[in-house]
Amino acid sequence: MTDNNHRYIILLATTLSSFLTPFMGSAINVALPIMAKELSMTALSLSWVASSFILAAAITLVPLGRLADIYGRKRIFFYGAITFTFASLLCIWSPTQTFLIIVRALQGIGGAMIFSTGTAMLISAYPPTQRGRILGINIAAVYIGLTVGPFIGGILTDHWGWRYIFLFTSILGIMILLLVAFMVKEEWLGAEGESFDLAGSLLYAVALFAIMYGISLLPAGKAVPLIGIGLICFILFIRQQLRNPSPLLDMRLFLNNRVFAFSNLAALINYCATFAVTLLLSLYLQHIKMLTPSQTGIILIAEPVVQALFSPLAGRLSDRFEPRLIASLGMALNILGLIPLIFIHNDTSIHYIVFCLIVLGIGFALFSSPNVNATMSAVENKYYGVASATLGTMRLTGQMLSMGITMLVFAVILGNQPLAKANNPLLLQSTHIIFFVLSIVCCGGIWASLARGKVHNN
After folding, report:
1. CATH class assigned to 4-186+248-451
2. Is the dihedral of CA 447, 452, 455, 458 positive or negative?
3. Domain residue spans in the chain?
4. pLDDT tens per residue, range 371-427
């Protein structure tokens, strides 16, 4: 049994890692317009700075989660911290947009190794009665990272340049490495001795890459064959997994476990509906409202501040009440935050934007902690790594779909012109369309959240 002091160290290590990646992502969002100017990037290529990270992480999450169950969750977590930190150092010296996008993909693989093991380590270390509270703390760290990211990222970009964001994340990565190497002693193996499904991993990677990359290429003609190939590979993957005695992803988790299946679907929809908000508002505030990166960062912290404040409460509530009710309320609030953003224009007040961000922050907090609690409580110990990785894959796939919607609208409305020269009315038109689509998507999330059924027996 893990003693209390060791549990606190595990909580600290995983919480720091939960802070790191959202901090980096939100800090970079503020710096994107400056990045685009320095590296002569179009709106589409700029979108790939975020999308390359998400795509690489999504493709590798489930295989890495399975490897963590077989060979050790702490080991994979540690290697992930090394990979992420090394890639962050490379990002500092990016000479071209192509190099930056490639290194961001490497960073995504390191992030996947962290995502696939952090939650599983926490669930393994803490008893079921404390999971909601601990997950609430861990998820609050995500929102704290999102909170300070735009502010610190704006300051670093204004005074020293966007490359210092990656220097900051490198320092945090080194801290996590030292903490895990010298203070986390225990190892967790939920499926020790079982074989790793390499063929299934390759099918899964090809399927996910083809589908997600194809979506990003829409409306180009070559997108359709890619998506078709991805869907065929995904069908073959499901068939192969059902026949494999030691599958990469036990499909029975989806077929026979209603709570697990619909919790993952709800996560996919929620992240699809909300991920692009920060990017769109960052472009709106800096291109339409002509604010600096620092000023933009200060405004954008409204949402994650509220998320950080409400997440621990939402986690504790999910220990006492049905997670589906709390999470569904959160999704409803997300819709109420998205719809007003459809109508923003040149003269929209900053207070209006901040109010929408606050509503979104409360909604996201009420959804996230209870949804993670429901997902992880629905499986047994041997599946913790894969369940954590699957939930992470849903998150990243949702984020990629959100970026896919954004890139599709940008491609149709803005074309391939440099973002610095983009026509502001067309940028505003694109923003309206995207927020409308995201609002519609979010409605489906309420149904998925409610459909999962009960988690608590009493």
Report:
1. mainly alpha
2. positive
3. 4-186+248-451, 197-247
4. 888 888 888 777 776 777 778 778 878 887 888 888 888 888 877 666 555 567 888
